[in-house]
Amino acid sequence: MAYLVQVDFPHEGPFGDEMATAFTDLAKNIAQEKGFIWKLWTENEETKESGGIYLFDTKEDAENYMEKNRKNFDEFGIKGASMKLFKVNEQLSQITQGPLK
Amino acid sequence: MAYLVQVDFPHEGPFGDEMATAFTDLAKNIAQEKGFIWKLWTENEETKESGGIYLFDTKEDAENYMEKNRKNFDEFGIKGASMKLFKVNEQLSQITQGPLK
Known about the structure:
- Chain A is α+β, with helices and mostly antiparallel strands.
- Chain A has a single domain, classed as Alpha-Beta Plaits.
- Chain A contains 3 helices and 4 strands, in the order E-H-E-E-H-E-H.
- In chain A, strands 2-3-1-4 form a 4-stranded antiparallel beta sheet.
- In chain A, strand 2 and strand 3 form a beta hairpin.
- The radius of gyration of chain A is 14 Å and the shape is globular.
- Chains A and B meet through strand 1, helix 1, strand 2, strand 3 and strand 4 of A and strand 1, helix 1, strand 2, strand 3 and strand 4 of B.
- Chains A, B: GO terms for molecular function: monooxygenase activity.
- Chains A, B: Keywords: Monooxygenase, Oxidoreductase.
């Protein structure tokens, strides 16, 4: 059973290559989180938003990461973040080639 | 370059296996959309929400699907849906094993 964490927040930049440079170390750390499977990094320069879609092995692992992420948002003064936890419906996701690993 | 569509909406059910049965045909249709790469189906029985994370080849393919999805929400009377389009930051996503295919 996979759990998905959906995060988005207002973001004035950097975007693209500059964003990648700025967050490379953070990405390496996230890849080491307990129960972490993968993360896609999202960005929209037009709407000035950024975020991520994370997959975790268990609900507990997902919730622990969300709690850590909330603290990071507070620390960096990021306001207006949306963070949602979902179970993945694996039967339907298999029909649509959804990546569960 | 991959584009991600992030959708969530209030959903009273069905969830789990019943949701899978109810939406199997829809899933088969979605898998045929132009430029479609994959979709993960999301659900949260506690918060009464459902949604999906979609990956598309191009921005145009993603936007065309979003337009179709908006019409479906109207047709089915689904209110309060959130639908966001993002570019995937591929450099960061590769560090965190994000599935780009």
